[in-house]
Amino acid sequence: MAKIPVSMVVNGERVGPVQVDEYTTLLDFLQEYLNLTGTKLGCGIGVCRACTILVEGNDGALEPVRSCINNVGRFNGSSVTTVEGQAQRNSNGEVLALSPVQQAFLRNFSFQCGWCTAGFVNAATALIDDLRRRPVSAGKVEQVIEEALGEHICRCTGYVRYFRAVREVIESTPGLVKEAD
Ligand code: FES
Ligand code: FES
Fold first, then answer.
1. Predicted local confidence at residue 54, as pLDDT
2. How would you class 148 by CB atoms within 10 Å of its CB: exposed for 0-12, middle for 13-18, buried for 19 or more?
């Protein structure tokens, strides 16, 4: 199999160029080449969204991307965030503080086996990022959560607690909810 060189920024650190098999998925690159195993393989066919990571767009916006169905070559030169990059860490890599979304998931006991959790964390983080740019009216909070998380599958059926935790973050973070339409 032919090799291709891949370079990107992952969780704030420059990686590569790494020579990878040309058909390597982004998920396999993260797990096998970078040892970032927090991103999980669920269905492997783009349905469950357990493998969702974040890619920074040209405008700095965070886009949720399913890493199981995308070739790593597509992200050459991109800036990618996985669940390992959500918490604040010190120079030794030790966690100093979980992100607001992670803290809310813990407070609400949102996950059970945890297999889907990294995908939910990243999708919710992208939603919060989007609401900083485009605040939503109070009456539409449920709707935007549904749009952001509604296609994520949790086989332990933790949806209510995931949704509750994200609503908590949205409603407690200044600037995400507009006074009125
Ligand atoms: S593992 Fe990627 S969408 Fe299911
Ligand atoms: S917590 Fe088990 S699949 Fe969601």
1. 98
2. buried
